[in-house]
């Protein structure tokens, strides 16, 4: 019955602003080899893995474009694709995507790609929930201007047959919204791959800072449990350009339990062999959606964007 | 700015099958007085607080009706309402409700009532997610035949102005579904009151049993955090008619932190003074729904009841 898959959370430490992309790809290749050497079939890298987390600055268009990829694989990243194919290892990688659509319109997305063991791209996910702010907010010690850089992904949360199961993706802030997991759960997802960059200092409410690790586990463990799916959450952590970010990368079972965890804040691989059939213990009992869900009472979730209190 | 409210989780230990209702009401009154003596303004009792958890047996219609209330307050429960009014304390109480509608049709609901400090009923919530099974499943050591006894509440998840804020309710299995919290979150809920009876032995998958306390915290803490609301979860725990149920009643802040906890498995009161304005730290920052939610990508949540994997 077992549908075993060996998965790696390939956490990264900081990427400096002036770190050459070739050096970053060297690190990715090293993590890939380490994971492959430990039997991994699928290696998950963080959000915006190729560069520093540039939304901490408010840059003009010329400056920002150096952080975006116009093709994937591109000249620098082809080496990662080639090495993965050579090793027979699949991977998922986050990057800033400059995409020109069929009408010649250019879009900037916060993107994560899923690549099969033969080197072919299975799917491309574009972050749906863009956090932070649009303008330059000078009162902050550093910016979180993701809404300046990225438009929301237009395709929502897909699920794809790959790696012997049903795989979905989400990026960073997406993981805080239960709808993210549920939309994939309603497509039968068994494994969700999530990259993140999470500054420990949250300027709008610093009393949340000490809870960053707790909240990180809370949302991914509950998303896993409530949808009977594995979740792999992978950080770019450590102190990058003076800003400290959460590490704590982990692999969560459908029970909500952590089955593997990174313990440093740097480049580190955490590996787990997971049985995708274990998802059934939740999908076919307590969370048998077809038997127990009550969508007729969920309508506000799609009818309403903001909260509207009843009349007093 | 503080909108302080002192809330009590009034946990109950077992209620035996042959325990007279008057004796149960004695216990409720004792808990109410204990909570009032510690400054509580709102006391939350468990699901089906007046009787043993009868869905563990498969009873015929005549037998089951002794567990249902045809009026609230009724002859035995009036004493609780009177004492609460005398003390100036509000409360929320779970009970099995036999309701005859305007067309003369009789309905059986798993119900929780919210009563203000002046003794008036503010709201009545009827459990939406009915777990367990419809028939008598003889392979089980005990039944969980809630679907034999109760129809789902027809009114969904409302939110009411009461106790100086916006209050909602849910019952037991409702707490495991993120939609429960979200539908109330979209009405601005600040305090959700949840009674439960949760057997520690889960016949369809006993490997979940040791995780019962973890899952209980996971779903209520994430529901609180992701909606910026306080949650009060109150058990009927301990070993009742040979079946052990989870206790672990707790009050959760919008941070997901536990601010008060029962530590026994018997009749016990846990009290916390909560500031309903603390909800703003989450509702107006990270979880500013109107700014950040993306309902156009949530449509499957209401369009679909069961999971439908994509074509292979």
Task: Explain what the structure shows.
Two copies of one chain form a homodimer. In chain A, the strands form three sheets. In chain A, strands 1, 2, 3, 4, 5, 6 and 15 form a seven-stranded mixed beta sheet that branches. The first copy, chain A, has a six-stranded mixed beta sheet with strand order 7-8-9-10-13-14, covered by helices on one side. Chain A has a two-stranded antiparallel ribbon with strand order 11-12. Chain A contains nine helices and 15 strands. The mean pLDDT of chain A is 97. The first copy, chain A, has helices at residues 21-37, 61-65, 78-87, 146-149, 178-185, 212-227, 280-283, 289-292, 300-303; strands at residues 4-11, 42-44, 68-69, 90-100, 106-115, 121-126, 159-162, 165-171, 191-196, 230-235, 238-240, 243-245, 250-252, 258-261, 268-275. Chain A starts with a strand and ends in a 9-residue tail after the last helix. Helices cover 23% and strands 27% of the residues of chain A. The radius of gyration of chain A is 19 Å and the shape is globular. In chain A, strand 4 (90-100) and strand 5 form a beta hairpin. Chain A has one domain: Nitrilase/N-carbamoyl-D-aminoacid amidohydrolase, CATH 3.60.110. In chain A, helix 1 (21-37) packs parallel to helix 3 and helix 5 packs parallel to helix 6 (212-227). With 312 residues, chain A is α/β, with parallel strands linked by helices. At the A-B interface, strand 7, helix 5, helix 6, helix 7 and helix 8 of A face strand 6, helix 5, helix 6, helix 7 and helix 8 of B.
